[in-house]
């Protein structure tokens, strides 16, 4: 394993994770402002959410440092659980009328642009393969083509939803493909772990995901990206504006 590329990979994933957390904060601050929440309530809610995110990231990093995920017999289940906890929390938030309305305010092109972060994850996987700690099946040199979603995100946001455009059908196709592509990347990662569920006998395996900060990929980056796709699909599948105007007291 190339120690220099391993260290660079750690820095890349750390900066990516912090950047995504900052993007979530900015998007929520924008949405809460548009809902005309009182400033003290808005700041309190934002602090609660961002503190919860950083607390979860700290828990993952601590568990990884303690070797909790680095157990061949349980690595698959534990990393799947690390993905499932934030994803389940997101699904629960969707049951909240306030959260749904807040997300409705966000321009859908922002949600599309957000997926450009997958360029970084895919280039990291490729670099990690060159550094001999990421298996080849997790890269675009074999089975993972998620870079296509990241590379087309900026173009899709502008072509589908920029300058007053709202291309519903194209947006539905792109987001559906994005979910399928990321699910494929996640499953390849999990089935490349050492243990009884391993389906790829390549060397190296994907045990790097059990270490900090790489555990933030299945524990934060992947569920957030899929959650943003779900938000986009939700808005594309429902009539625009009526419920939000009613909530804001407009005709």
Give the N-terminus to C-terminus distance in angstroms: 62 Å
Overall shape: globular
Question: What's the story with the biggest beta sheet?
Answer: none
The overall pLDDT average reads: 91
Estimate percent helicity.
Answer: 55-70%
The helix-and-strand class reads: mainly alpha
**Alpha plus pi helix count:** 10
Rg of Cα set: 19 Å
Low confidence ranges: 242-251
Strand content: under 5%
Tell me the total number of β-strands.
0
Secondary-structure element pattern, one letter each: HHHHHHHHHH
In short, what is this structure?
The chain is mainly alpha-helical. It has ten helices and no strands. Helix 1 packs antiparallel against helix 6, helix 1 runs parallel beside helix 9 and helix 5 packs antiparallel against helix 9.
Describe this structure in words.
The protein has 251 residues and is mainly α. It contains 10 helices and no strands. The longest helix is centred in the first third of the chain and has 32 residues, at 3-34. It starts with a helix and ends with a helix. Mean pLDDT is 91; it is low at 242-251.
């Amino acid at each position: 394993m190339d120690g220099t590329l391993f260290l660079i990979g750690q820095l890349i994933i750390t900066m990516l994770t912090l950047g995504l957390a900052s993007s979530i904060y900015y998007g929520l601050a924008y949405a809460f402002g548009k809902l005309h929440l009182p400033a003290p309530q808005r700041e309190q809610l934002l602090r609660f959410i961002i503190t919860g995110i950083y607390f979860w990231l700290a828990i993952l990093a601590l568990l990884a440092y303690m070797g909790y995920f680095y157990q061949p017999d349980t690595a698959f289940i534990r990393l799947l659980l690390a993905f499932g906890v934030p994803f389940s929390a997101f699904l629960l938030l969707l049951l909240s009328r306030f959260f749904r309305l807040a997300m409705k305010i966000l321009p859908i092109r922002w949600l599309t642009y957000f997926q450009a972060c997958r360029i970084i994850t895919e280039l990291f996987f490729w670099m990690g393969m060159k550094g001999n700690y990421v298996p080849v099946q997790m890269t675009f040199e074999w089975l993972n083509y998620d870079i296509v979603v990241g590379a087309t995100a900026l173009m899709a946001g502008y072509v589908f939803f920029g300058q007053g455009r709202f291309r519903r059908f194209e947006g539905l196709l792109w987001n559906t493909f994005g979910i399928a592509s990321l699910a494929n990347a996640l499953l390849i990662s999990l089935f490349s772990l050492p243990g009884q569920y391993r389906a790829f006998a390549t060397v190296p395996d994907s045990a790097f995901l059990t270490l900090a900060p790489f555990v933030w990929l299945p524990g934060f980056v992947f569920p957030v990206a899929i959650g943003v796709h779900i938000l986009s699909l939700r808005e594309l599948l429902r009539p625009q504006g009526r419920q939000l105007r009613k909530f804001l007291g407009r005709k």
